[in-house]
Design goal:
Keywords: Acyltransferase, Transferase. By secondary structure, the chain is α/β, with parallel strands linked by helices. The chain has helices spanning about 10-20, 25-40, 50-60, 75-85, 105-115, 125, 130-145, 175-185, 230-250, and strands spanning about 40-45, 65, 95-100, 115-120, 150-155, 190-195, 215-220. It has one domain: Glycerol-3-phosphate (1)-acyltransferase, CATH 3.40.1130. It is built from nine helices and seven strands. A seven-stranded mixed sheet has the order 1-7-6-2-5-3-4. The N and C termini lie far apart (about 45 Å).
Length: about 250
């Protein structure tokens, strides 16, 4: 299937494509392994979380991973962490929400597609009203991918946290709507919060460089198997779980 240009005015064709897109799993495994060697994340789990996550993955149930967002290096350090965690077995079947501008440059798009990217047209970039229809379609596509057995990784803060890396910023309701819609498709997802820390930042408005992102601390929380029924309540739970994960990552950096 021809890959359409990722533009807001072309969003119907874009989401038709990403409903079916499947990256080459062997290339994805190779790419994630290279990133793991480059970034060498230090991965930790709260008590019982690793065993619970392994069991959850074996069960075949869809999972939504909520991850804090600190820099433009995050997609690469998260991929490196996936390689060094039980998520390795799911590489090739994890979708990752990524802002649409990452799909403009052909070489950059190749990398994002390899990592399972699904474009997001953000209101802050295009205007809330302009992206409403595309946003609804994006959430439907994510729910359908979960129902088909994929996992989904989301940075629910929506943009890099340049305020306080130790405090989760407001979480939009989008992640709640995706989980809610997946449940309506008889595929209620579990939730796993994953947090990263790149260490103390003297100026949080200055992102860590790629070199400073090496050896980041990642902490996995225990899976949450029963989510609230309302999207807003799911989003509140996501923020609570993610803050607990961030607290652990900062404390153990």
């Amino acid at each position: 299937m021809h890959s359409p240009e990722v533009l807001l005015e072309n969003s119907d064709a874009v989401y038709d494509y990403y409903l079916r897109h499947q990256q080459n799993r062997w290339k994805a495994l190779g790419g994630y392994a290279i990133l793991a060697r480059r970034y060498r994340p230090r991965v930790a789990f709260v008590e019982g979380a690793k065993q619970q996550l392994e069991a959850l993955i074996r069960s075949g149930r869809p999972v939504v991973y909520a991850i804090n967002h600190l820099s433009n290096s995050d997609p690469y350090t998260v991929a490196a962490t996936a390689w060094r965690s039980p998520l390795r077995s799911r590489i090739g079947r994890v979708r990752v929400l990524a802002k649409d501008e990452l799909f403009i440059d052909p070489e950059q798009r190749r990398k994002v597609d390899m990592m399972g990217g699904i474009p997001v047209f953000r209101g802050r970039d295009h205007g809330i009203r302009a992206v409403n229809a595309a946003g609804q379609r994006m959430m439907d596509i994510c729910a359908q991918r979960l129902a088909a057995g994929d996992h989904l990784a989301v940075f629910p803060e929506g943009t890099c946290n340049h305020v306080d890396p130790a405090k989760v910023q407001p979480v939009g309701s989008g992640i709640g709507h995706i989980a809610f819609r997946a449940a309506k498709l008889n595929a209620p997802p579990a939730l796993v919060a994953i947090a990263m820390s790149y260490g103390p930042r003297p100026d949080p408005t200055v992102e860590p460089t790629a070199e400073e992102a090496v050896s980041a601390r990642f902490v996995f929380r225990q899976p949450v198997l029963g989510l609230p029924q309302r999207p807003a309540d799911i989003a509140r739970l996501v923020k609570e779980e993610l803050q607990l994960a961030v607290d652990g990552a900062v404390a153990s950096y």
